Amino acid sequence: MVNPLNPTGRKKDTEEEKLPRFECTMCGACCRDEFLLVTVTGSDIVRIAAVLGLSPNEMLKALDFYVVSDGELIPVGLERFPSIATEGGLSFISLKKMENSECVFLKDHLCMIHPVRPVVCRSFPFIFDESDGQRTWGLSAKKEICPGLGTGPQTSEIELKNLADTILPDIQVYREFAKEWNDNQISPSALNLLKTIISDKRFYS
Ligand code: SF4
Ligand code: SF4
Prior knowledge:
Number of strands: 9
Number of helices: 5
Helix content: 25-40%
Shape: globular
Oligomer: single chain
Bound molecules: iron/sulfur cluster
């Protein structure tokens, strides 16, 4: 998840900066925050569609496409995810937010897709990057949004490594897919994009 308006996703060197204390309070605030985009990878889309038995058309209705206009700065954090060509322009794909800002999969304060929730949900409030060859981590929210920050035990290096090992390969495969897709599309559509993602074996590993 990335907060495009008030990000704190500054990269940090785990050897130089103290690891924060964090314990999820299960408050669900990250599922309801207006400004937290729940970005998804191709693997996330495949897992969610498979578990819920959603067709590409149905999956499309569960997604938002966040378009960054020419000249507009990419919100901090989103640059870790590739933008991908659709009829609306280059888009960052995220889970749909309802009118009350709740994630489309939040029902009665519970995540309806918890076992297959997107990688950004599994790692929140931590974010990871290794696009410049060096693995780095940061936070995508402050304590004002995530009350679990500053509570519980100090996060360990091994916990961060395990999270990064889960998330970064997903993002890398999606980045490779997005480059191919963007290079080959003359008139892209979001529906064809989802059909292609759901039929791409790379997202099933
Ligand atoms: S906002 Fe933080 S404490 Fe609350 S559910 Fe999300 S991760 Fe857990
Ligand atoms: S997918 Fe689940 S955990 Fe992630 S924001 Fe939606 S309801 Fe919350």
